[in-house]
Each structure stands twice: as C-alpha cells, then as structure tokens.
Amino acid sequence: MIVKEITYTDYDGNTRTEKFYFNLNEAEITEMQNEKEGGLHSFLDKITKSPDNVEIMRMFKKILLRAYGEKSEDGRRLIKSKEISEAFTQTEAYNVLFLELIDGGDQAMSEFIKGMLPQSFRNKA
After folding, report:
1. What is the pLDDT of residues 64-92, one digit of tens each?
2. Residue 7 CA to chain centroid, in angstroms?
3. What is the pTM of this model?
4. What does the alpha-carbon distance between residue 84 and residue 64 come to, in Å, rounded to a whole number?
5. CA torsion angle for 63, 65, 67, 71 (degrees, to 10)?
6. Residue 124 CB coordination number (10 Å)
7. Which H or E element spans position 69?
C-alpha cells in the first residue's frame, strides 16, 4: 500500500495537505491479470518500452483509480468504488499526483504501481 501525502490548493484557495491511499490486493491483481492479455506484468513492461504515450496514460490512470480508496475509521478496509474514484479525480490532489507521476516519466509510474502491490507481487513486477 502507498499512503501518499499530497499538498494542493482546493477550489476555495485553501492549501491542504491530506493522505491518500492506494492499494491493489492479490484478488484485484488476479482479476486484472485476466482482463487483458499479458495482464499487469505486461503493462509494467509496456510502460518502460512503449512509445504510445496516450495508451500508457490511459492504462496508468485506470490502474491508479482502481487502487485508490478511502481508509475506514477502524483501519480494516480500504473502501473503493467508481464514485469514490471519480470524486478523487475531481480534486486538485489528483491533478498534483497525476502530473507528478507523469512528469517523473516511466520510472515514476512504474515505481508507484509497484508500491501499490503486495510484497509477493513486487518481485515479479
């Protein structure tokens, strides 16, 4: 899991620093592996080799939003839904994070994705 502290300016002009949570568990990764030929491993390889920036950004955004969630009060769950992910994309925090990772290049995106993976999958990725 990655707990990313992001500082941004909200739409009222207030500077905020908040924690955002990103995690892919083994069940989610298994589902992703079976959604597309080559799965997540193929995507990570593509990030480092492909000249198709549009496809890379599209796939990266999909993975990023699939991993995003809000931690429950008791810390037992990372609550995820399309609505929660969409709400995140409507914040300046998302803008700051997305641009930071895109500007960081293939390595930054790849490392962020690896950080969201369980340890057992990191070595494979």
Report:
1. 999 999 999 999 999 999 999 999 999 99
2. 17
3. 0.84
4. 12
5. 170
6. 11
7. strand 68-71
